What we know:
The protein has helices at residues 11-24, 34-38, 57-60, 62-74, 89-93, 101-123, 147-164, 177-194, 218-225, 241-254, 281-295, 308-318, 362-369, 373-385, 402-416, 428-435; strands spanning 27-28, 79-81, 128-133, 168-174, 200-204, 232-236, 259-262, 269-271, 274-276, 299-300, 333-335, 340-342, 352-353, 390-393, 421-423. By secondary structure, the chain is of the alpha/beta class. It has two domains: 11-318, TIM Barrel (Alpha-Beta Barrel), CATH 3.20.20; 333-435, TIM Barrel, CATH 3.20.20.20. β4, α8 (177-194) and β5 (200-204) form a beta-alpha-beta unit. The radius of gyration is 23 Å and the shape is globular. The two termini are 33 Å apart.
Amino acid sequence: xxxxxxxxADTQTRADALREALATRVVxxxxxxGTMLQAQDPTLEDFQQLEGCNExxxxxxxxxxxxxxxxxxxxxxxxxxxxxxxxxxxxLAEYDIPERNFELSESGARIARQVADEFTxxxxxxxxxxxxxxxxxxxxxxxxxxxxxxxxxYQVNAEGLISGGADALLVExxxxxxxxxxxxxxxxxxxxxxxxxxxxxxSVTVETxxxxxxxxxxxxxLTALEPLGIDMIGxxxxxxxxxxxxxxxxxxxxxxxxxxxxxxxxxPVLTKQGAHYPLSAxxxxxxxxxxxxxxxxxxxxxxxxxxxxxxxxxVERVRGTAITPRDPxxxxxxxxxxxxxPFRQDTSYMAIGERTNxxxxxxxxxxxxxxxxxxxxEMARDQIREGAHMLDLCVDYVGRDGVADMRELAGRxxxxxxxxxxxxxxxxxxxxxxxxxxxxxx
Length: 442
């Protein structure tokens, strides 16, 4: 692999200053990017015949991308997100250009960096760049792609962002906890490779159903993601602020780390002209001011449908406000893809279902040896129905490929079980294979 460009010399200084700001006062980020790019009517040539691939504009029309950053900085926001939401393996592969991952990530960060530095110099107010790492189009929990493949690609994405001048990495709009983990680990590997430490922010997307796309509640997300060493967790996209309130309340009570919120401008209303977002600038500012006061947010901004005017009003209300102190009361626990299970023994003991253990259950072992995977899953479900709190999964058996068996069964248990999985093996590679299939916290 070719040697990587070094990050800008003052990257660490800016990153440390951003960490200090996020720890002491409310920081305001920008709003929607895609709609503002499309409003400037880029041509098919601008997209290099890859219609809708906004990241290509970083190379072909940096002036358009630059103008969006300028519009947000002009209304006083502290930081902007790079135009790199789709600069990841899965999204770029849809256009047959996955090899441009680093190039488009680096160029997007470089444009934002230049604009941020100009506004810092002209106003005396430090401006920062958040490197946007989007979810892509493939869900590893559902087997669309492997954990390792997207982890490594997210590392390339993050290396490009940092090399281009990003001050923080924003893993955003996440829908699958296993994809989220891959992004976070890829980002951490990028920092190690480049010798810098920038804030790592994670923003999950909770649908109107009250869960993430694959059914994960906010508690499962916090339990699975906070131990990975992220600097901040929050919500963005899918809904307006009203639908986010209860999830933010949960985070405020349970998260040990700072919080963020970047809602859409309400729920979209479909019209003949397309989707319309009804929330006014004043209403968004009202909501964010309330969230800052009640939930102790450190970072606020906007997502789909929000404009510079929305963010101007938010800036006037909350930027620079001291962070409201929180007194979280977190409860240690494990999580499946769907729910968190506290390490709390309301009964006389915590029941770990052992019937999905190849050494302890002849029935399970025979089903595994004969590749009757559905029967293995049914044995897991039987234990759920009978009141187990967690499920033991052990595939160790002489003469078997434990890594292959663990991949097969952990991948199935990830979506079939609402309970956390207890991975059980004497072999580290087998444990690793299981962890790479589980979006929850084993």
